[in-house]
Amino acid sequence: MRVYLPSTIPALARVVAAGELGPAPLTGFAVTPALIEWYASGDTEELEYVALTEAARASLRMLAADRKDGVEVAARRVVIAAEVPDETVKAGADLEERARVRVLEPIPMRLVASVHLDDADALPDVEAAIAALFAADGGDDDAQFVVDGVEDHELLWYATQEIPDLLA
User: Fold this and answer.
1) Per residue, what are the HEC states of 105-165?
2) Stretch 14-42: mean pLDDT
3) pLDDT at position 94
4) What's the rounded Cα separation, in Å, for the pair 35 and 154?
């Protein structure tokens, strides 16, 4: 099963150094039965895009949490795509979290299929979304508009052999 895992640049560097994503359980996003039911007219590619977008939103939250904790982190959403055995993935039935899954085992780097990352052009909008995230969570419609606006930027696709260049 293809699982999209939210990350950040520093977290990706830790994954590469450790040789795996972990410790388990890991929160990711995938094409689940609940997602298929909700998005009945979509094909597999469209459903995977929804899961990738959900992971990118979670990456934005990771960036905001790091900043709140005083950690300097580049304003780039990062999503790691991995092919994991179906039996290691547990999907919930809650439609509010229709694409969310739990991966029950660490994911070795050999199962990583690609990395998705914001282009430099997205940085100002990602910065603005990070700054607006907590206000948006509090119900501020203008802040929510800013947070949603970052999704206008497509994440770029990188092969696993390009990861060292991304971290340089």
Assistant:
1) CCEEHHHEEEEEECCHHHHHHHHHHHHHHHHHHCCCHHHHHHHHHHHHCCCEEEEHHHHHH
2) 89
3) 59
4) 21
Amino acid (one-letter) located at 72:
E
- Biggest alpha carbon distance in the chain? 43
Average pLDDT over residues 144-162: 95
Give the list of residues 6+ apart from residue 47 with CB closer than 8 angstroms, or none: 31, 35, 36, 39
> What strand order describes the sheet that includes 89-91?
89-91, 100-103, 26-29, 2-7, 78-83, 112-117, 156-159
What pLDDT shows up at residue 33? 82
Supply the pLDDT for residue 98.
85
The continuous run of DSSP H or E covering 46 comes out as helix 44-68
Q: pLDDT-based confidence at 96, cuts 50/70/90?
A: low
Distance CA 110, CA 94 (A): 31
Tell me how far CA of residue 14 lies from CA of 31, 106, 110, 123, 167, in angstroms: 26, 13, 15, 22, 10
Average pLDDT of every residue of the chain: 92
